[in-house]
Amino acid sequence: MGRVDMSRLVRSRKNTSVNQHAAIQGRIHASHNITKDDVVQLYHINKTLCQGCRANSKDNPNCFCGFIPPSNGVRKQGLWQKVADTVTELGPDPGDALRLSQESPSGLTNLGATCYVNSVLQCLYMTRAFRTGVFAAEMELVKSHPVLYQLGLLFAQLHSGKKIAVDSAPFASTLELDNAVQQDGQEFMKLLLSLLESVLGASQNMQARNVVQNVFRGTYSYVITCSKCGQESDLSKQAVDFYELELNVKGFTSLEESLNDYLSEEILQGENQRMCESCQMRVDATHCTKLRSLPPVLNFQLKRFVFNMKTLTKKKVTSKFSFPRTIDMGPRLSAYGENESTAIYDLSAILVHKGSMANSGHYVAHIKDDRTEEWWQFDDEQVTSLGFHPLGEVTSQATASKDIITPEDVGGKDQPLQAGVSEASGSADPSSRSHSESEMLTSADAYMLMYSCRSELRNDKSGFLPGEDPVPMEVEKERKIDDNADLPEQLRLEIEQMNNDFEAMCWEYTRRREEELSRIAERKEEVRSILALAPAKSLEEPFFWISTEWLRSWADSLTPPAPVDNTPLLCPHQKVTPKSLPIMKRITAKAWKQLEALYKGGPAISGDDYCADCIFEDARAAASADTYRDQRMYMREVIEDVLNGRGLDDKTYFVSRTWLQQWVRRKVADAPSDADAGPTAALRCPHGGLLPEQAAAAARRQRVPQIVWEYLVNNAERVENSNVQGHQAFPEDQSTCSQCQIEINKAATKKEGLRATKFEQRSKHEALYGGKSTVIYPGCTYYLVPTVWLSKWRAYLGAAGKNVLAVDEPVGLEGFILSLLCQKHEGMLFKPPSLTRGRRGEIVQQTFDDDVFTVIPEDDWHNLCQQWEMNPAKGIRAEVELGNLSTDISRKNTVEGEGLEPHFEETNLLDACNGRKSEVILISDDDDRGIKFENVPFLRTTPEVCRECIEERETHEFLTKLNYTNREISVTLVRGKEPPPSLLLASSGTEAERRTSKRARRASATSGGRIQLNVSGDTTIFQLKLQIWEALEVVKENQKLHFGKDELLDDSATLAELNILPGANLWVMDTGQHENRDITEELPTEKTGRVQTEEGFRGTRLLMGGLPSLVESLSAHAVQSGFVPPLSASSNGDSTMVNVSITEDHNVEALDEPMLTEHSISDEPLEQERGTERTSAEGSADSNPSMVDTAGLEEGPNGLIVEDVSSAHIMHESDMEAMEQDAGNTNSRGRS
């Protein structure tokens, strides 16, 4: 069977319904009687009940489809949406933030850029010994210091809170941190511990007072040994406290390598020799750092952020770094006796910095729960279990991933334990720890590693305190941590209150949500039940009419609608008319009574409330429409015959032919419309008469019979009312308007005369009008005409035929010429056109698109002056002259002069100017010197060129071109030995570039990579080379950048200074002499004389409340290290005071050699190269640098920036003895 055309079927049914409707109205109009059956059919009461319609049918009052969605269906809004708006307005469910169980850790909210704060706080909290010490502080002390109170409250919420994520805003606000600026996690931890150490120092509880020291403090010594006698200096026996070990990442692949380098010996010789107390002379010596004691929690801070002193910027070292899950630090401890010790540490936390940039990225922490040995990832609010592996569960796929290194990758299975390599295991069973404790982990983002000493060895002092200067006993006793320690009573009560408030909020939300859901369910049930009662199943069943709009609003509204409003259904007689059928529905009396009882309103419209008056009026209008359609159909047939030349025997009238054709094509309507107006409007002239047909295309007319004219006028009057101008009668015998005819005749005469004039001018100037080049002869006179005026003149002469008046004649020639002359010097403002020789040696104008003048013969000039009424003497007169140009054929370059004279030959040619004989200089043969002479033609004008004004104008135009912004230039990477010839033409969109052959352009495009760069006139060559570096991956030192034949060597020069315009073609060659490197090392500072420095935590509470200033920190570190006496004990009054500007945990790349010079101290540790154990409270690795003026700064040793302020000594050799004597009496904390 063929496929049924549903659209045609629908149209057929609709047409059938319309025909039935028209038949009923015709019967009513004829009989003046309305039967019950007529009402049923007019109001479509007999329409069947439909089900499953895609949309509600407006034509069927019994269709209730689409008011509600199908079963289990939803809508985007209203009562039937998936989640109601009223439920959404309640806000997020606080129950979603409910902690799953006390066994799962809680996260911390990110306030914008505070991921570094959250990661460090989680590391500290998960260190049980530390949080127990914080909880042990007296509440009087805690409440007296806001930071300590907020930290204790935050730890208490993490310990016993009910929320899945704790709000860190109060703590960050108390510290006065900028939540929009990401800072350095290591720096934050150092400063926070320093602040807590200072605050808790006032506690009477020993466990709280020494918690920072007990958990994180170890000691080491700077040991200097004489290479001659083997004795160590007295300073070597002094212990220096440390709280973290800062290890280099750059240049090392594993923790073991970096730690070995940290503890390695360095030789002091030459200028760095030291004075030996035993030998009493300057001798070679060795210097190293030796660990004396280790803390329970050993913190390795990996220096991934390095500082480039050349560019004053930071960058991140993204190389992979390996570290073991278990490390034995015993062999690395210095033993001042024969007893050997072991100190086995297990990895307990990893601080990770994700991202490749130093000033951005994201911090997360991987921390082990010491109770279950399960690892967790803390990513702000999200806390995810990693199983029993620090980097996630090890699977067969993960074993080969970038974050896990197998034993074979680092040297095999037989490596010793301290090397950190053994068989890797991915077992999730904690009992398998013995198989995986020496597993080597690898990460390119690990930033800080925390190792915890084995609990069974923590009470063994010899395990980690083998030195001669042990920690006091009262500190040792507090190292044993109570695993079952409870919260302080005050904090416990506060947390209970918080938990109760949170649970009450969750309960209240649940209650309100359930109430709202219950109300919505009741509304849905009400809608479903009433709509089930609405359809009337028989014609005899009583029914009421109701507004479809109100019914739809009621069925889809979350809240109860307004009272029933049926007023839009009523006609002026307060009944319902069949025209209201699309906006009303027929419902049963039972459904109407329920709606009326619930929502009131009305009026109630029963089935008997139909309007008989409206039905009779509609029947009469329908009959009238039928009459109009019948008449129109008849008239259209008559008019079609008229248009074909038939039926014009009787009296006729004129109508617009165009209007009549459009009337015939128009669809049949029920009544006249605006398209029936104005049948003769286009034929009426401004004088009220008949417009001649030749006046306009719209004036074409068509004769129609009188019967047609009367029908058209009748319809036009019904539309136009009193406006008779649109249907003014023009009988066939009416003559056209005489005034209009006169005007038309005059215009025709003018056109004819203009055509003759233009034809005459084209004949006189045939060559000039055709655009042919004028052959220029020496000795003849020519004139220069503005090219723009000549183009307009050609366009004017070219307009012929019907378009003869379409183009206006050009303005006066004299005014054009005067505008191109200098009024001050009465010279030409533009240079005359260049001349060249044709193929036969004739001289012609070298035509360019931007030529201002065109050369024309003298005869053409005089004819133009006569036609445009101009004085010929005011023109620009030109004569050709020949200059000498010598070309060295052997050298292929052009020279002028050099005292060479060409050979001349004289010949007689017919002068094309005036018919006389003239002498013409011809090209001679090569002479015996290999020199060929050419005659170079040029124009000499009267008036002459005003060079002063031209130079001024050209200079201004050129400078304007150089002042460009964000325009494109082309750079081509040439890989061969020689560039294509097209690139040797220094082009900035000039004629040289436009005339490059296609072959040359193709070679330029394929000889290497070609790029388009956006530059400005003030872009320097250095900046351009950086763009080329980034786009073509050619380092700056390897670039040989050219513009044309010239190499661009001055990196400080701008493109404008080198006359490089937009569209220029530059080319570069790669020498390959230097290795490729990171482009960030070359990024310049923003402004000369100003550098970016980092505010760090300046202005926050981390630098208040007992934390020493930068000067005190550097001084204490130097004094405790034994290299510099206290500031008050200076033995050299004229010693230079300097402030070393270094970021605390950034490796200084510019310092590739030890900073020991003849002015430095021989005993000073080589910490400048390592950058270890140094705290800078004034600078950190934050991402919000500020601008500081470098005026007054001087460059110290190895390029280090120094400033004349009182902060530290640079000691001379004469200060050595005083330094060592005073150092023994100094006992400062010396925080690293």
Structure overview:
Its EC number is 3.4.19.12. Residues 106-454 form the USP domain. It catalyses: Thiol-dependent hydrolysis of ester, thioester, amide, peptide and isopeptide bonds formed by the C-terminal Gly of ubiquitin (a 76-residue protein attached to proteins as an intracellular targeting signal). The protein is an alpha+beta fold and 1232 residues long. It has 33 helices and 47 strands. The strands form 15 sheets. Strands 5, 10, 14, 15, 16, 17, 18 and 20 form an 8-stranded mixed beta sheet that branches. Strands 28, 31, 32, 33 and 36 form a 5-stranded antiparallel beta sheet that branches. The protein has a 5-stranded mixed beta sheet with strand order 38-37-41-39-40. A hairpin with a 6-residue loop joins strand 34 (908-910) and strand 35.
The whole-number mean of residue pLDDT values reads 74
Radius of gyration: 50 Å
Count of helical segments? 33
Distance N to C terminus: 93 Å
Q: Which secondary-structure class do the elements indicate?
A: alpha+beta
**Shape call:** flat
Helix fraction by DSSP (H/I, runs of at least 4): 25-40%
Quaternary status? single chain
Strand percentage: 15-25%
- How many β-strand runs? 47
- Largest sheet at a glance? 8 strands, mixed
* Unreliable residue runs: 1-14, 336-340, 394-435, 456-485, 885-912, 914-933, 988-1007, 1085-1092, 1106-1232
Protein name: Ubiquitin carboxyl-terminal hydrolase 26
Enzyme class: hydrolase
Subcellular location: Nucleus
Biased composition (Basic and acidic residues): 1167-1176
